[in-house]
């Protein structure tokens, strides 16, 4: 097929993805990744071959310097490159071009977890949110840290779910349900009542829409920035999910249970929480050295 043929196919594929009821963000990601690949081909009449795909993969793997606000950023992360290749391979399958599919870039698994939020830092953020009366931030952070939900899943934290003390999450075509902490549910209901919310979502704007991730993240960084001992590299919505996962694993000692609550379809995704932190690794190595006496 030529580039022109694939452009037509891409339009058709986008319609198919919408009919399959994939998340809007997922569709945008898939289409964007494939579009960037097609944009790399100079001519519409160019025949797309396996070599075309290999050359594009090589170009992704080449380190490029990108500048943002005068600070150089080097290339893309391997995970982002592989995500792009996965999108392209899905598209090639749709086009019945299985022979053109390419392998992902090999990435060595990390043996440690880095930049993990500590309990001291979490308390520091909550204290600052309380001091600044940023209650949306305070309750969102507390809910994320005590439930392990993704930020986008906060929209399922409703007056009704708090009353039932059960969270029912419907995300990415999968439904999972788990118990809500009783005190947290009670506190959230009291906060909702103070805001005049009697039904539906709790984390909403004045217009009644769910607070966007970007809006929340900006405000979160402003609040956390006032706590001088907080490492700002750790401050992002997903950090609280990691915090929950590690502490829940420590409490249950059951990786399958952690996977179930987090909504992971594969234990391989959850296994990262079994790895050590760099600090723990150093301590283990020192302990081993002392035991060996060398």
Q: Mean of the pLDDT scores? A: 85
Query: How many whole angstroms does the radius of gyration measure?
Result: 23 Å
The largest sheet, given as strand count, sense and whether it forms a barrel, is: 2 strands, antiparallel
The dominant shape is globular
Distance between the amino and carboxyl termini = 64 Å
> Numbering strands along the chain, what is their spatial order in the largest sheet?
1-2
In total, the number of strands is 4
Strand-pairing-aware structural class: mainly alpha
Uncertain parts: 63-75
Spell out the helices and strands N to C. Answer: HHHEEHHHHEEHHHHHH
Estimate the strand proportion: 5-15%
Number of helices: 13
Helix content: 55-70%
Could you list some keywords that capture this structure?
294 residues, two-stranded antiparallel ribbon, single chain, two-stranded antiparallel sheet
Structure report:
The protein is mainly α. The protein contains 13 helices and four strands. The protein has a two-stranded antiparallel ribbon. Strands 3-4 form a two-stranded antiparallel sheet. Strand 3 and strand 4 form a beta hairpin. Helix 6 packs parallel to helix 10. It is globular and about 60 Å long. The model is unreliable at 63-75 (pLDDT under 50).
Q: Which helices and strands appear, and what pairs or packs with what?
A:
Blueprint: H1 3-19, H2 24-39, H3 50-61, E1 65-68, E2 71-74, H4 78-94, H5 119-131, H6 135-147, H7 159-164, E3 166-171, E4 174-179, H8 182-195, H9 213-224, H10 238-252, H11 255-262, H12 267-270, H13 278-292
Antiparallel strand pairs: 1-2, 3-4
Helix pairs in contact: 1-2, 2-4, 5-6, 6-10, 10-11
């Amino acid at each position: 097929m030529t580039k022109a043929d694939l452009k037509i196919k891409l339009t058709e594929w986008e319609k198919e993805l919408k009919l399959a009821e994939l998340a809007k963000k997922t569709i945008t990601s898939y289409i964007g990744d494939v579009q960037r690949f097609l944009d790399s081909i100079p001519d519409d009449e160019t025949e797309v071959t396996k070599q075309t795909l290999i050359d594009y993969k090589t170009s992704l793997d080449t380190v490029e310097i990108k500048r943002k606000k005068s600070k150089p950023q080097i290339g893309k992360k391997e995970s982002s490159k592989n995500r792009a290749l996965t999108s392209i391979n899905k598209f090639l399958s749709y086009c019945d071009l299985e022979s053109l599919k390419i392998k992902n870039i090999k990435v060595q698994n990390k043996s440690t977890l880095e930049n993990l939020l500590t309990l001291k830092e979490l308390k520091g953020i909550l204290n600052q949110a309380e001091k600044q009366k940023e209650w949306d931030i305070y309750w969102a952070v507390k809910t994320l840290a005590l439930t392990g939900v993704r930020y986008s899943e906060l929209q399922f934290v409703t007056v009704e779910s708090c009353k039932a003390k059960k969270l029912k999450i419907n995300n990415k075509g999968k439904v999972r349900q788990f118990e809500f902490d009783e005190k947290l549910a009670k506190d959230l209901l009291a906060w909702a009542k103070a805001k005049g919310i009697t039904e539906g979502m709790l984390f909403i704007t004045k217009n009644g829409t769910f607070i966007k991730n970007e809006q929340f993240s900006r405000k979160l960084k402003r609040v956390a920035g006032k706590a001088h001992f907080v490492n700002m590299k750790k401050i992002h919505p997903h950090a609280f999910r990691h915090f929950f996962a590690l502490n829940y694993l420590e409490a249950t000692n059951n990786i399958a249970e952690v996977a179930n609550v987090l909504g992971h379809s594969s234990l391989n995704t959850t296994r990262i929480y079994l790895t050590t932190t760099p600090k723990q690794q150093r301590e283990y190595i020192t302990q081993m050295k002392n035991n060996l006496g060398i």
